[in-house]
Amino acid sequence: MTLADLKPNDTAIIAGIEHPDAALISRVMALGLIPGEAISVLNVAPLGCPIQTKVGNTYISIRKTDARFIQLSR
After folding, report:
1. Rounded to whole angstroms, how far apart are CA atoms 9 and 19?
2. In 1, 16, 21, 59, which residue has its Cα 20 to 30 A from 38's Cα atom?
3. 3-73, what's its fold?
């Protein structure tokens, strides 16, 4: 399951980030999206992008295309 699959008010644990671009992985991890952290989806825009999330005390809006690379576990 990926972050793009979660619906509003769902919570999961970040299992990993898999993307061929190491710069994107670094940027996402710098925002606080680190494996082992709980992530909640607060809202999804009407066209599905962006996705508003909460990790710890941080609110992050992420594009759906990037959310597909964030692997989750329940």
Report:
1. 26
2. 21
3. SH3 type barrels. (2.30.30)
